[in-house]
Write a structure and sequence with these properties.
CATH topology of the largest domain: Rossmann fold
CATH architecture of the largest domain: 3-Layer(aba) Sandwich
Distance between the termini: 67 Å
CATH class of the largest domain: Alpha Beta
Number of domains: 2
Largest sheet: 8 strands, antiparallel
Number of strands: 23
Shape: globular
Radius of gyration: 25 Å
Number of helices: 7
Structural class: alpha+beta
Order of helices and strands: HEEEEEEEEEEEEEEEEEEEHEHEHEHEHH
CATH superfamily of the largest domain: SGNH hydrolase
Strand content: 25-35%
């Protein structure tokens, strides 16, 4: 009996080890000659890439392109400004919108020090890095049922619900994606393993009990999305620029348990009466019951010299009709553009005046409000209450303090509560 239990234990342990074994391991595998473009392996086992040197992991290492995990440990020499390195890149040769990648970017001082996921050919967001030279960083990319999640040293950096479009290409390390890219001079790949569908990666730094959020992405747009844990709960989309990022901190907790809230950080900066096609794509990603939107201060270029009233009305109407086409079942609410304020005169003093571009805001709001009336869209006036509370302005001309963002959040929640009662 004891011998039988021992054999069961041995079988279980060895089976678990076998299931966790990588399908491809840089420490054990020879890089195929046809996939090695100047990458050099040192005696320590590290492989150096950078400049014009790169290598590839064979496509055969990805038998199931909807379920795999890649872990790569990389250290950088002192990077030059405005340089980047594609640590992972599994796309078609011509850069078409397939597969995934991961790019590290080192910008100017006080600028970008980030890594950026690539989903179906599109860079999405940027997650900050410290970029200490000669320091190992471990990136993990897990793909489950075609959706990817990114981690840096076990810290979650992004979960993307959009299905990857598969391809039969190798996975390149260090290869340029765009002709204009200026790659890091040198980086050492200390470890790289590819695991198949039997491998399950679990980050010890995931927040227990939290409803995970991900992202649904298309060409040049991305929507932050919740995990739908209650199918009976209505879905809500709020759309806007950095102002929406400010009130998000208040809005998501306030809506928890009432609706599933999606956040689309986006704006239309130029006159574009054909923008409805992009808006329609985003509005169609879920069966939204409510959509709250505002085009924001990125439209301050719409001065009388550069945009007529008719052009502003046509572009605003295109935004509305994009939402209507993509989500015909949704109730729409427009949030008026917040004031343009003067800069803070000195640290510690409140803002005391509106900004020199505020007449543009008034004009946009006036035209947009008429469009909303004609289109039957609900209006939430956030210009008036904030214009009366300039002491809540952040002092940079555009943004606001947390109490002001809570005012916007409260106004949205009031409309949601009222609509849910109906």
């Amino acid at each position: 009996m004891k011998r039988a239990l021992l054999w069961i234990l041995v079988f279980t342990v060895t089976s678990g080890l076998y299931a966790q074994a990588p399908l491809w391991d840089l420490a054990k595998e020879k890089i195929p000659d046809e996939l090695n473009h100047g990458a050099a392996r040192a005696e320590s086992g590290t492989v150096t890439v950078g400049g014009g040197n790169y290598f590839g992991v064979p496509a055969s290492a990805f038998p199931d392109q909807k379920n795999f995990t890649v872990q790569v440990t990389v250290s950088f020499t002192e990077p030059l400004e405005d340089t980047s390195l594609n640590v992972l890149l599994k796309q078609n040769k011509d850069g078409e919108d397939t597969g995934l990648g991961l790019t590290c970017i080192y910008g100017k001082p006080d600028s970008w020090r980030v890594y950026r996921p690539i989903i179906n050919g599109m860079h999405i967001g940027g997650i900050r890095m410290k970029f200490q030279p000669n320091t190992p960083y471990t990136f993990t990319v897990t793909v489950r049922n075609g959706s990817a999640s990114y981690y840096l040293d076990d810290v979650p950096g992004g979960r993307y619900l959009t299905l990857l479009l598969p391809n039969d290409e190798p996975m390149w390390v260090g290869r340029k994606l765009l002709p204009r890219e200026k790659p890091f001079a040198s980086a050492d790949i200390r470890a790289l393993r590819v695991y198949g569908p039997d491998f399950t990666y679990t980050s010890p730094k995931e927040k227990p009990g939290a409803e995970p959020r991900g992202a649904i992405a298309g060409k040049n747009w991305m929507i932050d999305a919740p995990s739908v844990v209650d199918g009976s709960r209505p879905k809500l989309l709020f759309y806007g620029d950095s102002i929406s990022g400010g009130y998000r901190q208040h809005l998501l907790p306030a809506l928890e348990g009432k609706v599933h809230a999606y956040h689309w950080t986006h704006f239309v900066g130029g006159i574009d009466p054909k923008v409805d096609a992009v808006i329609q794509q985003g509005a169609a990603v879920a069966d939204f019951k409510f959509i709250f939107f505002n085009n924001g201060l990125h439209s301050l270029s719409w001065t009388p010299e550069k945009a007529t009233d008719a052009q502003i009305a046509d572009t605003t109407r295109a935004i509305v009709r994009g939402f209507k086409s993509g989500a015909p079942q949704a109730r729409l609410f427009w949030i008026s553009t917040t004031p343009h304020t003067a800069r803070r005169s000195e640290a510690g003093k409140p803002v005391e005046a509106l900004g020199d571009k505020n007449p543009v805001v008034l004009r946009i709001n006036r035209i947009a409000e008429q469009v909303m009336k004609e289109e039957g869209v609900g209006v939430i006036d956030m210009y008036t209450p904030l214009a009366e509370r300039l002491e809540l302005a952040a002092g940079d001309e555009y943004h606001w303090s947390s109490p002001a963002y809570k005012m916007i959040s409260d106004a949205i929640v009031d409309r949601v509560d009222e609509a849910l009662k109906q």
